[in-house]
Design brief:
This protein has 446 residues and is α/β, with parallel strands linked by helices. The strands form five sheets. Strands 2-1-3-6-7 form a five-stranded parallel β-sheet, with helices on both faces. The protein has a five-stranded parallel β-sheet with strand order 9-10-13-8-14. Strands 4-5 form a two-stranded antiparallel sheet. Helix 4 links the parallel strand 6 and strand 7.
Amino acid sequence: MNNPLALIIDDEPDILELLDMTLGRMNIKTRSATSLAQALALLDQQQFDLCLTDMRLPDGDGLSVVRHIQQHCPNTPVAMITAYGSLDTAISALKSGAFDFVTKPVDLQRLRELVNSALRLSRRAEQPVAPEGDDPILGISPPIRQLRKQIAKLARSEAPLYISGESGSGKELVARRLHDLGPRACHPFVPVNCGAIPSELMESEFFGHRKGSFTGAVADKPGLFQAAGGGTLFLDEVADLPLAMQVKLLRAIQEKAVRPVGTQQEEPVNVRLLCATHKDLALEVAEGRFRQDLFYRLNVIELRVPPLRERREDIPLMTQRILQQLAQRSGLQVPTVEPACMERLSSYRFPGNVRELENILERAFTLCEGDTIMADDIQLNSNPLPSEDPTLGQIDSLEDFLDDIERKALTQALEETRWNKTAAARRLGLTFRSLRYRLKKLGMED
């Protein structure tokens, strides 16, 4: 197997020498560039397994390198080298598509971890793509196809990611898929429900504790950050964290280190942080229940998981998969679903999303007679789709109702124009810019 090849870009000779020596000891060959023009020329001449670039270059900036690589060689991971304390710069790089960042003065252990993760990602890009049927995120609808596309792109990044979506929509499944497709797949995926941990135990649970640090601490215990070492820590329902814990979490993210209860020394941690909540996190910030600085650190990139009512064409496929799983667990035959039953399911609003569909089908599977699930076996709450309720009596949120209508109109126009956005905007009487804004606002665009 040939040694990997890395491109390092910096106009400081000392930094170039340090990076060259460090990567050389890792059996990585390097090519160097001291300017943006030189770097772009090298990128056009040959393929690299990794790129490390300084943010400030004599004739441009590192973001231009990131954008060039994203456009011309997207399978090459690129990491940014920034000045200490320039976290806003690093966040801009991550949003532009950078894999990760490291600050000056360069911590060599942190650099080696970054390089190893990037090379794992580069090797995974060369492996054959698994068939879509193996994807645990089921569906053929445009919102799900778009979600899968976003997951494949964001799995390549180390950026903190905020997964938004209603309760039961599958946010943890999305987080696991991001982990499985990324360079940390061979390390732990640690999910934690922030709302299920008593506030007095939170610091110990997250950061660990030393023996004797409090009553009941009979032995040293690693925390969730340490348990996820090298892998992914998924903080579900992060909006439920008390403000005091939010301060400590912010420090852990900024310093990439935690301080176990009962010690004065910080321990470095290496995790990718994913978080989720069914609440509107921006509203929580506005009302003082969530720290704004922590919000900006967690919400570097937002990924929206669509509710089930926005992808009703996926319900038959999901129903079949859920029934297959139920049959496999019970050792029984997979029941068929009569058309009238499927029609009832497809026209239901599903306020509880995928979790509610699973509960409905499990009950029907248990109670149905014979090997066919009939319409009468399905017990639904009286909650029709908005378009079926002219009185609006069942609408829980006017904003959600209007968003549903707008999303449906946009999807229809895009489908009718084969996803030509210029033609869709013309059909809807919108400017192209206005269409792009609406798609982004509704989570329908990268």
